[in-house]
């Protein structure tokens, strides 16, 4: 039994060391990320000022890209609109894992066309004495 106690203790010690190193790493990266963001802003401003969407240099190429995100301010209104207009392209399709699990518990079967998988991992909680 001592062997398993030692392994749990070692697991917690390693997890604590990883957490400590990640925090240190995050702290050390912060000023570099801030500098990188400021430099990116300066490059974007230069391209805006020169009406350019890309600049090639001997060191590399900088360019502008646009990333879009759509969020729902009123999910019910959006769903009514999609159903009424049949604009189903406005939706992303994916199954909700929690709802599928609940369905399987109730019906002992998966909904048609759905796969359900899980990954089991070991969790270790710190004891009160450590």
Task: Please explain how this structure is put together.
It is built from 3 helices and 2 strands, in the order H-E-E-H-H. With 130 residues, it is mostly helical. The chain has 2 domains: 67 residues, no CATH class; 49 residues, no CATH class. It has a two-stranded antiparallel sheet with strand order 1-2. The longest helix is centred in the N-terminal third of the chain and has 48 residues.
Mean pLDDT: 92
Residue share in β-strands? under 5%
Number of domains: 2
Q: How many β-strand runs?
A: 2
**Gap between N and C termini:** 18 Å
Features:
2 domains; flat; 3 helices; 130 residues; mainly alpha; two-stranded antiparallel ribbon; 5% strand
Provide the fold topology:
Layout: H1 2-49, E1 54-56, E2 61-63, H2 75-85, H3 97-107
Antiparallel strand pairs: 1-2
In short:
The protein has 130 residues and is mostly helical. The chain is 54% helix and 5% strand. The two termini are 18 Å apart.
